[in-house]
């Protein structure tokens, strides 16, 4: 892999580490309020990711045993955007390499919608509270801005035009070389 792509992946992995630390703080502060656990796949549908995340998935799949990689690719080819081909028995088969949206899904995420802040989260989380504590809310727009920046650095170094975002199934089926 050439140096610019390696640098982009390094920047992406640094971002993932920062996001994981932020999520860890929320989970530590509110352990009784977070219902998400292994096997909870209700949010694993219709997700889109950035090309830098697709590259990370592609590299992770290359490291899997050939039979496992083939099964994931077959599921991706058969799946619609509603189904994540990485799920195996309701758990992510590439958990350490899952995209940021998968890491944050279900937690209180704030975005600007129609010019106003909007917070979305899995209703299984924080269900015994009248309101989400402000320090539990994650600024998804800020994270996505960082992802866009890392992705913009990658764009000149990949051989073809990539969509701005793509489904995980489409990412699994990509060929970067």
Descriptive tags:
177 residues; alpha+beta; three-stranded mixed sheet; two-stranded antiparallel ribbon; 7 strands; 44% helix
Order of helices and strands: HEHHEEHEEEHEH
How would you characterize the largest beta sheet? 3 strands, mixed
Number of domains: 1
Helix content: 40-55%
* Lateral arrangement of strands in the main beta sheet: 5-4-6
Low-pLDDT residue spans: none
Class derived from helix and strand content = alpha+beta
Task: Describe the global form.
Answer: globular
Radius of gyration: 17 Å
Number of helices, where a helix is a run of at least 4 consecutive DSSP H or I residues = 6
Mean pLDDT: 90
How many extended strands?
7
End-to-end C-alpha gap: 10 Å
Summarize the structure.
This protein has 177 residues and is α+β, with helices and mostly antiparallel strands. Helices cover 44% and strands 11% of the residues.
How is this structure best described in words?
The structure is a single chain. The chain is of the alpha+beta class. The protein has one domain (3-33, 43-173). 44% of the residues lie in helices and 11% in strands. It has helices at residues 3-29, 51-62, 66-78, 100-104, 140-154, 168-173, and strands at residues 48-49, 87-88, 91-92, 109-113, 116-120, 138-139, 166-167. A three-stranded mixed β-sheet has the order 5-4-6. Strand 4 (109-113) and strand 5 (116-120) form a beta hairpin. Helix 1 packs antiparallel against helix 5. The longest helix is centred in the N-terminal third of the chain and has 27 residues, at 3-29. The protein is globular, with a radius of gyration of 17 Å.
